[in-house]
Design a protein that fits this description.
single chain; alpha/beta; eight-stranded mixed β-sheet; 35% helix; disordered N terminus
């Protein structure tokens, strides 16, 4: 059933149609053309993994002239939510300046800056552990029910993000839900590890969690952006291998379509300057290294999810990946899956990282928690993300 909040678009909403781009006096070459130009000037190609996340078509004129004010709608974004947009703008500025960082340096910088978006939740312990031979993080709120677990896979385009960038946001979710969370790590593509290596590592981590005696009916799978890609790939493989699926799935701004076929790449291109179609196609090509972008194990949009547990998707109304969530929700519902999707007006990609600072993020976390608690057999309770 769809949510009735007027600030959310439900799973029953009509899918958006493509709209024409406004005419412009000039057009900057798409990202893949910039890549060739950068290579020609001998800029360290290792920086390209970082640039590809943030640069897209029509970026440079807007950096110089500033973004035109969007037409006001009935839903105004909070002042606090602007921090998410400013984070992406900072990344773009670093990229424009041609700063030659190694992948490790860029990841460390992003770890430090990205995590600043999220407030410390308070009353939560973070315990490092090894899961399937890789670092992971137990996130344990005070008073949490220990046999209920949110199995979380962070986003970052397969080239960034970590269990540390996301630990506070995941902690807000775990605290609001009243259970533990397990945040897992995976290899980055700049380490020479292309997909499906990350999916296979997630399968190993999920099996490890089951081996700890946690019942699947007490597990909720969760992820954001590329983490959603990995999560669904891992659950599809787990199903193929006869492993039980979790009780519920939480999806934040999921990257469901490596083929980047959604109409929102066009309709939201003037609102989301960071994840332009050319950028995402380039990044997908680097991640997949020859794998078909419509392979259902790489792009959940094309997967048969019949028999999957209930899924709650959230997306920003202004993000270019909006259609990934909308179309996936419709297809999953057609397959008989219990689906809820909430779209938050004027929000960008993974705005939930603002938990504890922006009301939209706190609202989103609260909705997730209220929805997932009964799925895990937890009683309804007053909860907040702060």
């Amino acid at each position: 059933m769809g949510h009735t909040d007027p600030a959310a678009i439900t799973a029953n909403a009509t899918l958006p149609t493509s709209t024409a781009l406004p005419k412009r006096g000039c057009r900057v070459a798409p990202w893949h053309v910039h890549v060739k130009s950068l290579l020609a000037t001998a800029i360290d190609p290792r920086i390209l993994f970082h640039l590809g996340l943030v640069l897209g078509d029509n970026v440079l004129p807007r950096l110089v002239a500033g973004n035109p004010r969007q037409k006001e709608t009935h839903e105004m974004a909070s002042k606090q939510s602007e921090a998410n947009k400013k984070h992406y703008e900072t990344l773009m500025t670093h990229a424009q300046n041609g700063e030659q960082l190694s992948p490790e340096e860029a990841a460390a910088w992003n770890d430090a800056e990205w995590t600043k978006l999220t407030a410390e939740p308070g009353g939560v312990d973070f315990l490092e552990v090894e899961v399937g031979g890789r670092p992971a993080l137990w996130i344990v709120p005070k008073g949490a029910v220990h046999d209920r677990v949110i199995f979380y896979i962070h986003g970052g385009g397969f080239v960034g993000g970590s269990i540390y960038t996301h630990r506070k946001m995941i902690a807000h979710l775990a605290k609001a839900t009243g259970c533990r969370a397990l945040a897992i790590s995976y290899d980055y593509v700049y380490q020479g590890r292309h997909y499906p290596a990350q999916r296979n590592q997630a399968v190993d981590a999920y099996r490890w969690l089951l081996d700890q005696g946690i019942e699947p009916r007490h597990i909720a799978g969760a992820g954001d952006s590329a983490g959603v890609t990995i999560l669904f790939g891992a659950l599809l493989v787990s199903r193929d291998r006869g492993l039980p699926l979790p009780a519920a799935i939480i999806s934040i701004s999921g990257w469901y379509d490596m083929a980047a076929a959604g109409a929102s790449y066009q309709s939201n291109s003037q609102k989301d300057l960071f994840f332009q179609k050319g950028t995402v196609e380039w990044l997908a090509g680097m991640v997949l290294a020859g794998v078909d972008p419509r392979d259902p194990y790489a792009s959940p949009l094309y997967a048969d999810v019949t028999g999957f547990p209930p899924i709650f998707l959230q997306a920003g109304g202004d993000e270019t990946l909006l259609d990934d969530s909308l179309v996936f929700a419709e297809r999953a519902r057609t397959a008989g899956v219990d689906v809820r999707i909430d779209v938050f007006p004027r929000m960008l990609h993974s705005f939930q990282m603002l938990a504890g600072r922006a009301p939209e993020a706190d609202d989103a976390i609260g909705r997730f928690a209220a929805w997932v608690r009964p799925k895990l057999g937890l009683p309804e309770a007053e909860s907040n993300a702060s």
